[in-house]
Amino acid sequence: MKRILVFLLSFLGVAVVLLGSILLVNRGAFRTLFENREGMMEGREWVQDTYSLRGLVDYVENNPERVTIVSRVLGAPDSPAVAECRCSAPFGNPVEPVCAGGRGRGV
After folding, report:
1. Farthest-apart Cα atoms in the chain, separation
2. Is 94 helix (H, G, I), strand (E, B) or coil?
3. What is the reported pTM?
4. Residue 38 buriedness (CB in 10 A; 0-12 / 13-18 / 19+)
5. 23-72: per-residue pLDDT in tens?
6. Handedness of CA 77, 80, 82, 88 (dihedral sign)
7. What span, in angstroms and rounded, lies between the C-alpha atoms of 28 and 33?
């Protein structure tokens, strides 16, 4: 009986220390999560729908102010379809636009 009690207390002690250290290291993220619940819930209804291409197109049609579509001709850099731009990521880091091959509907 004593061994079981020592084991359980040791297990709970290690679990509390481990969980506490994880919370301590990530306290800024947890604080943001709980202080900005409305912002975290924004777009929740679109997550499941955008897994398919049709759902992604619906999202783009319904939220044009949040989406940028860039069309580049990879073989002709001086083509008029090329747009020199850099998109900003949420934290201000510039990212390159995604290039996709194939045919698509003109925008």
Report:
1. 80
2. strand
3. 0.38
4. exposed
5. 999 999 888 888 888 887 877 777 777 788 888 888 888 888 877 777 66
6. positive
7. 9
